[in-house]
Specification:
- By secondary structure, the chain is of the alpha/beta class.
- It folds into 2 domains: about 220 residues, Spore Coat Polysaccharide Biosynthesis Protein SpsA, Chain A; about 100 residues, Hexapeptide repeat proteins (UDP N-Acetylglucosamine Acyltransferase, domain 1, 3 Solenoid).
- Helix content is about 20%, strand content about 30%.
- It contains 9 helices and 19 strands.
- It is globular.
Length: about 325
């Protein structure tokens, strides 16, 4: 892409660095968890908020600055819609911001995700995640008309300002901690409960001075955070552009299908592939799909509107070839 559109920027080397890891905490004792069957599972990533400190401690921040780099575009590797946009870069530079967050309009499928807000005391942008929301405020948190924008986790950052922040102890990044309750062994639902303490890189919007947000099209956000997301992306609800970028199909009008999969069957990738590795139904016109129990699809299945598949048995059931609209499948 750089060779075609910005040859003066092409030809650089690929740089990499490792982020940190932190111990999982036993949910009962709050001490570092121990797991003799696999000690590697005693550790977890500290969230992508660790990016900033890792840039500093790895020496990568100084390396980039020494090479004359002043701006970094940061995105999640699971966001297949993220790409460097010269137009957004121009807007960022003209804004004079130290950090700019790409945000998009929330839809029903985003109601459980974090949203952008302003702090009442000083009008500062903040990012609020579901794990930081008290139970009594969940209804407001999920109200997409009240909190209209979510963080795509596409960030534009002034590296020189980040260096200044780390050079001043009083301005050090104080990212809010997120407490996540997990299982020590993700593949074993009977393993002990642990607490994973994480930070979010988007939360830095409340720590930097002169931050801003820019609304972007939904096509710049195509995440794969769950097997439900993966199922949607593999369907015809998304398409591949000539530039080899996945985008939501225009007929979806910016809203992906809302999918709920049985967590006991489809959470792990290998189990998911058993059911969807070969055939994925058409969901271009599907608004909502809920699958409970083991299910397979024949080739040529089209789902439209609201589809509920309820298989309470352990026997795998097959949805036969055909077009189904606002249909409920149920077995005894």
């Amino acid at each position: 892409w750089l060779n075609r559109h910005a040859p003066s920027m092409a030809g650089g080397t690929v740089l990499s660095f490792l982020q940190g890891q932190v111990p999982k905490l036993d949910a009962k004792t709050l001490m570092p968890a121990q797991y003799e069957p696999n000690p590697a599972l005693e550790w977890c990533p500290p969230g992508h908020g660790d990016l900033y400190l890792s840039l500093l401690c790895s020496g990568m921040l100084d390396t980039l600055l020494d090479q004359g780099m002043k701006v970094a575009f940061i995105s999640n590797s699971d966001n297949l819609g993220a790409s460097v946009s010269p137009t957004i870069l121009k807007s960022f530079l003209e804004s004079g911001s130290t950090l700019m967050m790409e945000v998009a309009r929330r839809t029903s499928s985003d109601r459980k995700g974090g949203h952008l807000a302003r702090r009442l005391t000083d009008d500062q942008y903040i990012l609020r995640e579901s794990a930081q929301c008290p139970p009594e405020d969940i209804a407001h948190f999920q109200d997409i008309s009240r909190h209209r924008y979510f963080n795509t986790n596409n960030l534009w950052l002034r590296l020189d300002h980040l260096k200044e922040v780390f050079s001043s102890p009083e301005d050090a990044l104080k990212l809010p901690l997120i407490r996540n309750l997990k299982r020590l062994d993700p593949a074993n639902p009977h393993s002990p409960e642990v607490i994973q303490l994480e930070t979010a890189m988007g939360a830095a919007i409340e720590c930097f001075k002169r931050t801003s947000a820019i609304e972007v099209p939904r096509k710049r956000f195509s995440p794969v955070k769950s097997t439900a997301d993966l199922l949607a992306l593999r369907s015809d609800a998304y398409l591949m552009t000539p530039g080899h970028q996945l985008e939501l199909h225009p007929d979806r009008q910016g809203a992906p299908p809302r999918i709920e999969l049985d967590l006991g069957i489809y959470t792990q990738l290998d189990h998911f592939e058993t059911h969807f590795g070969q055939v994925v139904p058409s969901m271009l016109d599907c608004d909502y799909l809920k699958i409970t129990g083991p299910v397979l699809f024949e080739s040529g299945v089209t789902l439209r509107g609201k589809i509920i598949i309820d298989n309470p048995t352990r026997e795998v059931k097959t949805i036969q070839k055909g077009s189904y609209e606002n249909t409920t499948f149920q077995w005894d």
